[in-house]
Amino acid sequence: FFFFNSLNGDRKYNAEQLSSIFDGIITDGVFGAISGKLLVKAQSTPRMVVNVSPGRAWFNGTWTYNDTLYPVTIPESDIILDRIDTVVLEINKDDDVRANRIFVLKGTPATEPVAPALTKKDGVFQYPLCDILVKANATGITQSDITNRVGTSDCPFVTGILQTVNT
User: Fold this and answer.
1) How much is the pTM?
2) Residue 96 half-sphere exposure, CB side, CA atoms within 13 Å?
């Protein structure tokens, strides 16, 4: 049982207890009905920047709320080889961090590039918003280089919004 007002400090609640009220009501994911769904889009200038659309997400008992276009700079391309970078939403529950952030996880240049491995352990959880093919010697990113992963099993849409049923 909880929540009751504290009397003389007899009640202490932590983030996990507060977020547990959503257990069974919503599942982890990006809210598909809110704003731009955190989808990633190419930007015309500067050309090595993509924008994460506004949206909200719920992962690992934490909220992420992006209320405007969020620019993410893509690292410079390799001269000879292609690579795949991943724009991730990271939840970091480490006591020294305790924050969610969106950033690019740089891939490894290769003749057949693959997306970088994501972390999901020790209180750090990364969810892919998109993969970006960074072509060799590229000076820009186009929309055709971006594969959005929001709404996939790796970064699902929130399901389980409380509904009523008349039996």
Assistant:
1) 0.87
2) 1
